Amino acid sequence: ATVIRGPQSGHVRLRRDDAPPGVDIEVERPEAEVAACSIVSDSEPTLAACEDIVGLGDVNFGAMLHSFRLRLEKDRIFTNIGPVLVVMNPYRPVDSCAPSTMLEMAKKTSASTDA
């Protein structure tokens, strides 16, 4: 991915270099999040913290699967790949899917769309 300075201070825009012709995939992320995702080879906890696979320095199938595995071990079942949300089934109860957590997330989403 090519990193481009975003219009907002502290944000960067990532553009996929290997996208198929006619497909321009760009994602804007906070600079700190991109920096955290870029050092995947040095720190597995950092890789598990990466919320968006697009932020990985080396986006390949193996790195994606490794990131999914690390995130699943920490009950982080939601991961973005740009605008796509990947949800993994942990085959056990997960706190982030508890009714109280889901209700809180729905309230936050509703509040942000009302503003």
Care to describe what's here?
This protein is α+β, with helices and mostly antiparallel strands. The chain has one domain. The protein contains four helices and five strands. It has helices at residues 31-38, 44-49, 61-73, 99-114, and strands at residues 2-5, 11-15, 26-30, 78-81, 84-87. Strands 1-2-3 form a three-stranded antiparallel beta sheet. Strands 4-5 form a two-stranded antiparallel ribbon. Mean pLDDT is 70; it is low at 39-43.
How much helical structure, as a percent, in the residues?
A: 25-40%
Number of strands: 5
Give the SSE order as H and E letters: EEEHHHEEH
Sheet having the most strands: 3 strands, antiparallel
Low-pLDDT ranges: 39-43
Q: How many discrete structural domains?
A: 1
Question: If strands are numbered along the chain, what order do they take across the biggest sheet?
Answer: 1-2-3
Task: Set down the secondary structure blueprint.
Blueprint: E1 2-5, E2 11-15, E3 26-30, H1 31-38, H2 44-49, H3 61-73, E4 78-81, E5 84-87, H4 99-114
Antiparallel strand pairs: 1-2, 2-3, 4-5
InterPro entries: Kinesin_motor_dom_sf, Myosin_head_motor_dom-like, P-loop_NTPase
Protein name: Myosin motor domain-containing protein
Domain Myosin motor: 48-115
Keywords:
115 residues, alpha+beta, two-stranded antiparallel sheet, 37% helix, 19% strand, motor protein, Myosin_head_motor_dom-like, actin binding, actin-binding
Brief account:
The protein contains 4 helices and 5 strands; from the N terminus they run βββαααββα. The chain is an alpha+beta fold and 115 residues long. The protein has one domain.
